[in-house]
Amino acid sequence: MFPKYFVIGAINAALSIALGAFGAHGLEDKVSDHLIEVFETGARYHMYGALGLMLISLLAKFIDGGNLLLNGARFIFAGIILFSGSLYVMTLSDISKLGMITPLGGAAMLIGWVCVIISAIKFGRK
What is the CA angle 75-7-65, rounded to 5? Predict the structure, then answer.
């Protein structure tokens, strides 16, 4: 788990920075200020998830979190795609109905963090 999710996290951190810069500079005068804020929210949570994946992969070096820790990383990665991805696409397409997907991404991230918490408590005591 360690190298794979660390790399996935690092790639997503880089993507978050690139997309954040695009949102700040490339969307200026092209979309409303509200949609720029929406895009920036996507980039911010994209980075949170990316850093989380990297931290989880490091945690996996210290505890044997089993499938619970792995599933936590999977849920967080899915959350990045659904939450941030829906905000990015919604901003670029101006299809506001895509906002209905965003809470699913947030829920996936929350489920992922709960898996990580349980794994750390359960396996960290051994």
Answer: 50
Q: pTM for the whole thing?
A: 0.93
Closest CA to 9 of 89, 102, 104, 112: 112
pLDDT in tens, 22-79: 999 999 999 999 999 999 999 999 999 999 999 999 999 888 878 999 999 999 999 9
What is the residue type of 47? M
Phi/psi at 41 (5° precision): -65, -40
The amino acid at 124: G
Ordered by start, the domain boundaries in the chain are 2-124
- The packing angle between helices 66-79 and 2-21, to 10°, is 20
Render pLDDT for 83-106 as a digit per residue (tens, 0 to 9): 999 999 999 998 999 999 999 999
